[in-house]
Design a protein that fits this description.
Layout: E1 8-13, H1 17-25, H2 27-30, H3 41-51, E2 54-56, E3 61-63, E4 69-75, E5 78-84, H4 92-95, H5 98-117, E6 125-131, H6 139-142, E7 155-160, E8 163-172, E9 176-181, E10 187-194, E11 204-211, H7 216-234
Antiparallel strand pairs: 1-5, 2-3, 3-4, 4-5, 6-11, 7-8, 8-9, 9-10, 10-11
């Protein structure tokens, strides 16, 4: 018997199924949980969710670009969101990024949960950083978050890239940690660290900072502080979105 190794990602959201479905079909709402701010975000959303898709509003299923399938299942007053990755082998160039896309969906679904549970209707403003991880330790260790051992909801305080913050653990996965950050307008930080492998000899590091209600001065200070912190550690491909 062949073992089914197709990645499946599941998140339970404290929102009714109609609200979750709407957040998957409204472009303005999608842009406040999918990915992060960059010049081509609107085009990416259109390509993934609205150009190459199959939707069944009755069954609450959405097949999206690349063959991934999102299914919604009512669970009392909550909704289970399940994403099943498309099988490998359809496109060699796409397969080269298979693990990256899977990790991306983990981030996005937890950002969807955050949007619906904590910041519905709020305007998100993000910073994004990425790079190769060969020259530094895991992001959680470098940030001083490695000692967070509690599950979702566990409180924490930390000096985060030069700023004293507090918040709660939001989620954990094999390679990612998400925490809320009160100082960012009850924002969300998601960090990822993939160790070196044959596919990624230098590994990979990523951080997404979702902020709410910061004025330009506070947002600019956050951007400068994180750029100064990130660049010497993961400088190979470091970038951010204004």
């Amino acid at each position: 018997m062949t073992e089914d190794t197709t990645p499946r990602i599941e998140v339970t959201i404290a929102a009714p199924v109609d609200a979750v479905w709407d957040a998957l079909r409204d472009k303005e709402k999608i842009r406040h949980w999918h990915g992060w701010d960059f010049e081509g975000l609107a085009e990416e959303i259109d390509l993934i969710y609205f150009q190459h898709f199959t939707a069944d509003p009755q069954a609450r299923t959405l097949g999206i670009q690349g063959g991934d399938l999102i299914e919604l299942e009512p669970d009392g007053e909550h909704t289970k969101v399940r994403l099943t990755r498309a099988a490998r082998g359809g496109d060699p160039e796409w397969d080269a990024y298979y693990e990256d896309v899977t990790e991306g969906w983990i981030t996005f679904l937890h950002q969807l949960k955050y949007f619906l549970e904590r910041r519905p209707g709020a305007v998100r403003r993000t910073l994004f950083f990425s790079g190769m991880a060969g020259g530094a330790g895991p992001v959680v260790e470098e940030l001083g978050l490695a000692e967070l051992t509690g599950g979702p909801g566990a409180p924490f305080t930390c000096r985060l890239a030069g700023q004293d913050v507090e918040g709660q653990v939001w989620f954990r996965s094999d390679h990612q940690l998400g925490v809320t950050v009160d100082a960012w307008g009850e924002g969300l930080l998601v960090v990822a660290h993939v160790p070196p492998s044959d596919a990624k000899p230098q590994g990979a590091a990523m951080a997404v900072l979702s902020t709410y209600g910061l004025d330009d001065a506070a947002y600019g200070d956050l951007e400068r502080r994180w750029t100064a912190w990130w660049t010497p550690r993961y400088a190979a491909e470091a970038s951010h979105a204004p």
